[in-house]
């Protein structure tokens, strides 16, 4: 199954200047729990925003840069090739950023979204989830608390 996983605000904001504009520890825990042991597809800018390789995951990076070969990663130049590099009988996660989500949406079977109940200034956005294409299968609301400055909801969408 091809799964897009993201955290996006009410205005679909993902981040600004290649950084997230919120800190939600439980979202990070969920991301780690769902993606560990799997292939993760991302754009070069998303990859470069990480301090190091994410442990126990195979990194597939999509870039137009011909001489880009970070150690320990698979590098491709399009979404179709990225998907083909991953095992076809396992879950594959598309983890961003904005342009990569737009490229991945037609291929995705499922979306795991953390919806942050606020709006933010951003330069990267998650694509619109159209109700004619997607069914909300599950959601779990989390109120803000001492570790989370915003209310948020974990949402799971399945392609209709």
TrEMBL record:
The protein's matches in Gene3D superfamilies, at most eight in alphabetical order, are given as: Dihydrofolate Reductase, subunit A
For this chain, the family text in UniProt reads:
Belongs to the dihydrofolate reductase family.
Pathway entry: Cofactor biosynthesis; tetrahydrofolate biosynthesis; 5,6,7,8-tetrahydrofolate from 7,8-dihydrofolate: step 1/1
State any GO BP term from the record: one-carbon metabolic process
* Function, as annotated: Key enzyme in folate metabolism. Catalyzes an essential reaction for de novo glycine and purine synthesis, and for DNA precursor synthesis.
What lineage is on file?
Bacteria, Pseudomonadati, Bacteroidota, Flavobacteriia, Flavobacteriales
Q: What is this protein called?
A: Dihydrofolate reductase
For this record, an example GO cellular component is:
cytosol
| UniProt keyword Transferase, yes or no | no
One Pfam family, short name please?
DHFR_1
State the reactions this protein catalyses. (6S)-5,6,7,8-tetrahydrofolate + NADP(+) = 7,8-dihydrofolate + NADPH + H(+)
Q: Known SUPFAM superfamilies for this protein?
A: Dihydrofolate reductase-like (SSF53597)
The record's InterPro entries line, in alphabetical order, gives: DHFR (IPR012259), DHFR-like_dom_sf (IPR024072), DHFR_dom (IPR001796)
Q: Name one GO molecular function term.
A: dihydrofolate reductase activity
| Residues annotated as domain DHFR | 1-159
**EC number, as in UniProt:** 1.5.1.3
Q: Which domain of life is it from?
A: Bacteria
Q: Does the keyword Phosphoprotein apply?
A: no
Q: Which UniProt keywords apply?
A: NADP, One-carbon metabolism, Oxidoreductase
